[in-house]
Design brief:
This protein is mostly beta strands. Helices cover 9% and strands 23% of the residues.
């Protein structure tokens, strides 16, 4: 199989669709900003590196060791408000007309009060257009235009392509990067950074909820492949704690919507009814800026915003608005979905504030795991609105070639920042040497 992410470009993003969620069950960052349902959203961040790692693709790895919790510190790098403001409060213009169309389709009706539902991207843009490294840039500059939202990052890989075609706007593999600790710098190229000890759900700095790093031992990423058997018609009763330890809770079988109804053969993971219904739901959309709303399927195809599942769904404990709450969490390639049965209708299933989490992890020194050392992240590079120009790439180092979702193979010992160690055995099929990201050069 070609070693690339299955839904990376040819099957993962449509310029006419959008997706997202409010922040009722998400981990907000340190500076409050408005959100739906009376909750607050904010930011989280980080940046460091570890020694050179040689990853040999083979076998199916099994996670070992212990994943330690989040270090409850604020981001140590100040990013000007002219570059980033969480919660869509900065009134940044859309960096490209296609970005605006994608956001308008699902989130304009929410912003205008025409529908009460979770955000699909967020209340607005969190940054201006930024330039980030992308090897396949057709103009040969090694850059692409991106823009951050609470719930994701929009990307423009080829500004000369037909904007009316599917996949003109792509949606970042942020979950994969946060869990694995590898930053994507090309369609098949990733550079080693470090996994994120940022809670996937719950209040800022929550010490109960599992972090992205805690999901490393149960997800398909560069750090290892963890497929599941087809369990269609069984119930999601598995649990995970802040250290990544899994178990079962038979009492969860009585909660509505937890039956597993879809097995994704490409990544070998099951999706429960509540998430499957959410990803295939219909409702009011606005297909043109200033246009009327119509009732349509919100996401076409269903995996555009989320990507395919890379983990099983797991029940976890998270502190939400100060109260310890049961949350069902599942990692997808591009988003993390949460289900809080006690939330009001329309906000029971949401998407994590992964756009916030990722920006703070990559640019603001947040989410450093126990034992990690803060580094000096590269400052975000702004681009003129609607323009992708040459600039300084965001990531330095020598990118490696990752394995595909559902087929990641790792042997030897791959040590991530923190204390988790992934190991496995088997016959090597190919070898990838990954030079880690050191202190980035501005």
């Amino acid at each position: 199989m070609d070693k690339r992410w299955i839904t990376s470009f040819a099957a993962a993003s449509v310029a006419t669709v959008a997706f997202g969620a409010a922040a009722l069950a998400q981990s907000p960052g340190p500076s409050p900003s408005p959100s739906v349902g009376g909750a607050t959203t904010t930011t989280t961040a980080a940046t460091t590196a570890v020694g050179t790692t040689t990853a040999v693709t083979t076998g199916t790895p099994q996670a070992s060791g212990t994943v330690t919790g989040t270090v409850p510190v604020f981001p140590t790098v100040v990013v000007p408000t002219s570059i980033y403001q969480a919660g869509g409060t900065g009134n940044f213009p859309f960096a490209n007309a296609a970005f605006q169309r994608v956001w308008t389709r699902t989130d304009r009706p929410v912003a205008d009060g025409k529908v009460s539902r979770t955000w699909f991207w967020g209340p607005g843009t969190n940054s201006p257009g930024l330039l980030e490294q992308y090897k396949e840039d057709p103009q040969g500059r090694g850059l692409r235009l991106v823009q951050y939202f609470d719930k994701s990052r929009m990307e423009l890989n080829n500004p000369s392509a037909d904007a009316s075609q599917p996949f003109f706007v792509t949606n970042g593999l942020l979950t994969v990067e946060l869990i694995s600790g590898f930053i994507q710098v090309g369609e098949k190229d990733f550079t080693q950074f470090r996994p994120a000890c940022i809670p996937m759900s719950g209040d800022f700095g929550d010490s109960n909820a599992p972090t992205y790093f805690a999901f490393q031992g149960v997800s398909n990423t560069q750090a290892g492949d963890h497929p599941a058997a087809d369990r269609t018609n069984q119930n999601a009763t598995e649990t995970i704690d802040k250290s990544g330890k899994t178990g079962t809770d038979a009492s969860k079988v009585n909660i509505p919507g937890v039956k597993l109804v879809h097995f994704e053969a490409q990544t070998k993971h099951n999706i429960p009814q509540v998430f499957w219904d959410f990803l295939n739901s219909s409702g009011p959309v606005q297909n043109t800026v200033g246009g009327a709303t119509t009732n349509e399927q919100l996401i076409v195809p269903w995996f555009f915003a989320s990507g395919l599942p890379i983990s099983e769904p797991y029940w976890a404990k998270a502190r939400i608005r100060g109260v310890i709450t049961d949350v069902l969490i599942q990692a997808f390639e591009r988003r993390a979905l949460t289900y809080v049965p006690t939330n009001q209708k329309g906000f029971q299933v949401e998407m994590a504030n992964i756009g916030q989490h990722y920006f703070d992890w990559r640019y603001r020194n947040y989410g450093i795991c126990t034992g990690g050392v803060p580094g000096t992240p590269t400052a975000p590079v702004p681009a003129p609105t609607g323009t992708q120009l040459a600039g300084t790439p965001q990531v330095t180092g020598t990118p490696g070639t990752p394995a595909a979702t559902g087929t990641v193979r790792t042997t030897g010992t791959v040590v991530s920042t923190g204390t988790a160690v992934a190991t496995s055995t088997g016959q090597p099929t190919s070898q990838v040497t990954i030079t880690p990201l050191g202190t980035p050069v501005p």
